[in-house]
């Protein structure tokens, strides 16, 4: 999967590029709006709004005019992001700097899943004896398939993206439910409790009090 990263700031572009390459993505980086518009259309665009030549919103509009490529807009300031305007311009999602690698990768996966991309190299992950296959939406433990509901699968696949790292409840709710979450966070606890039962190893998903959850390799 080829990602076009349009970012003039090296201090952001370099770590983002190296992380994406480590995840198996091909990254083409451009530093200006004009270069981005001239580039070969990739499988996904990560577009900084503050570019040195053309306004990022205009780049977004023009990219959308010429192709259906998924676009994730990146902005330095939350108040710069007018979600309605971005959607009108054809962006698929947005991120506010500073953002974590996990959040970025979750957005890329969510957007490419919605756009039907099947070339995501991170489609399969192994964590200890667990094997998570995002393409087939199947989980096996020591070779035995575990029957999960769609949301249970999404929560486990999300935690498996960065094993050993704590995922906050807010981020899980935002990224897995893919919407601003207004309901009770009890829903997440219900899914985690059920996952623990089905995995047959309650300590596998650890609760980090006041923060969120972490997937461990195995007890
Ligand atoms: Ca910039």
Q: TL;DR?
A:
The chain has 219 residues and is an alpha/beta fold. The chain is built from eight helices and twelve strands.
Structure description:
The protein has 219 residues and is of the alpha/beta class. The protein has 2 domains: 115 residues, Response regulator (Rossmann fold), CATH 3.40.50.2300; 92 residues, Arc Repressor Mutant, subunit A (Orthogonal Bundle). Helix content is 38%, strand content 22%. The chain has 8 helices and 12 strands. The strands form 3 sheets. A 5-stranded parallel beta sheet has the order 2-1-3-4-5, with helices on both faces. It is elongated. It starts with a strand and ends with a strand. The relative contact order is 0.10. Calcium ion binds next to loops.
Task: Kindly list the characteristics that best describe this protein.
single chain, alpha/beta, Rossmann fold, Arc Repressor Mutant, subunit A, 4-stranded antiparallel β-sheet, elongated
């Amino acid at each position: 999967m080829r990602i076009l990263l349009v970012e003039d700031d090296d201090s952001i572009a370099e770590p983002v590029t190296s992380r994406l390459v480590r995840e198996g993505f091909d990254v083409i980086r451009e530093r200006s709006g004009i270069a981005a518009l001239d580039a070969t259309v990739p499988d996904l665009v990560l577009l900084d709004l503050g570019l040195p030549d053309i306004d990022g919103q205009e780049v977004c509009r023009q990219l959308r005019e010429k192709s259906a490529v998924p676009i994730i807009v990146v902005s330095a300031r939350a108040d710069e992001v007018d979600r309605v305007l971005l959607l009108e311009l054809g962006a698929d999602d947005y991120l506010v700097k500073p953002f974590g690698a996990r959040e970025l990768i979750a957005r890329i996966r969510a957007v490419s899943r919605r756009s039907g991309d099947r070339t995501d190299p991170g489609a399969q992950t192994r964590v200890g004896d667990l094997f998570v296959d995002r393409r087939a939406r199947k989980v096996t433990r020591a070779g035995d398939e575990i029957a999960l509901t769609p949301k249970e699968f999404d929560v486990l696949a999300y935690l498996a993206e960065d094993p050993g790292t704590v995922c906050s409840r807010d981020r899980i709710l935002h990224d897995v439910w893919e919407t601003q979450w207004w309901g009770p966070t009890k829903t997440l606890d219900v899914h985690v409790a059920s996952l623990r039962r089905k995995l047959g190893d309650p300590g596998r998903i650890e609760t980090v009090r006041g923060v969120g959850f972490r997937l461990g390799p195995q007890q």
